[in-house]
């Protein structure tokens, strides 16, 4: 099923009539932030019978949650080997299982019945910018055997059969991973939560929080709310009352663009039907709306108008797929994610009744869904698995210095990836030339055994020795030898 993406701002798209909190209210749980994590918590908690109020300073999905490509796959931003090294094999395997459950939470909600036009389709391909065949085999074995994840290893020829570019080498195919219309999903999630009984108040920023005592108090510009539990499910925009928490996140804005219709040629060049992302985290793309490319690539640690990056997205597409030429970008979008210093999300209880679900930059939709399940079950069932995230503490992200450093690290990472990719392609061309040279020599040797020797192109014949030298070098042949020969 095709998806349709428009440039209509989300708060004007007519998904629902926005409601502000204008009266005092009591609830079991107050969720601050109406993004993917906050709405997942609200939906799961009301399904378990709790009363839930969600406070959003702007509107549902206004930031990164409503501006992403909608790819859903298992895992975390932190590489699996690093995760094992940090917390051990058994805990890493349990976290990985939870991440898969988060993906299934999204799949269960993202049905056409629940969210018309959601456009769920299967298959995600992670491609490598360099030739890493040995590491690929090791990773496949780990995912299949140790982490019970269905994956397929794709050799270079198979990757390039569906992606007509020499920029990519090996790949890992996740057949159970999938993609949805991310914008429709976040609004569909809000609609499900409302229908289940959650109260969602937009244009309702939090002025102050008093988290002492059994009943916490939350003050907004026009009303107050009391709750037994508060969940901080915002991002870098939690505001002045929670600035210390926001400062543990490095703000990273990621931008994407959607091309004009490209016709049938795009299916010849990009024949893979699902999402494609590279292992360096630079490019992420897929075909939408029949014959348009949706492509995310540029990143900054400062806010900017997404329209500024239309040219950068177009150039990036031309770099990877030069056959497409200069494509026109007709729509751009972007949002700020909060990335943690250690690369893992912030999920757990800060103090009794005060919870956090944040730091989802680069984590994926499955992790925000997993956080919703985990925190709702922790509050209402006493599930203690949130403690698996205890080793990943709240770490100050460095303020302005951290943002400058983050931008420089991002530039260096992209340059390193480009250099490694260029070196890998150079070595590949050199290997091809060596094989061609060996093939010509082998053909020449075969020809030498059946007729006049034909030398390969570029190889000069060795001059014959002078007759006198040949005679001097010749050994005498006895009569017996001549007879035996």
Automatic annotation (TrEMBL):
Coiled-coil regions listed: none
Listed Basic and acidic residues bias regions: 434-443, 476-485
Region span, Disordered: 434-485
Biased composition (Low complexity): 444-453
Residue span, FAD dependent oxidoreductase domain: 28-377
Pfam families, alphabetized: DAO
Comp. bias (Pro residues): 454-468
Entry annotated with the keyword Oxidoreductase: yes
Keyword vocabulary terms for this entry: Oxidoreductase
Keyword Oxidoreductase recorded: yes
Signal peptide feature range: none
Name of this protein: FAD-binding oxidoreductase
Source organism of this protein record: Bradyrhizobium zhanjiangense
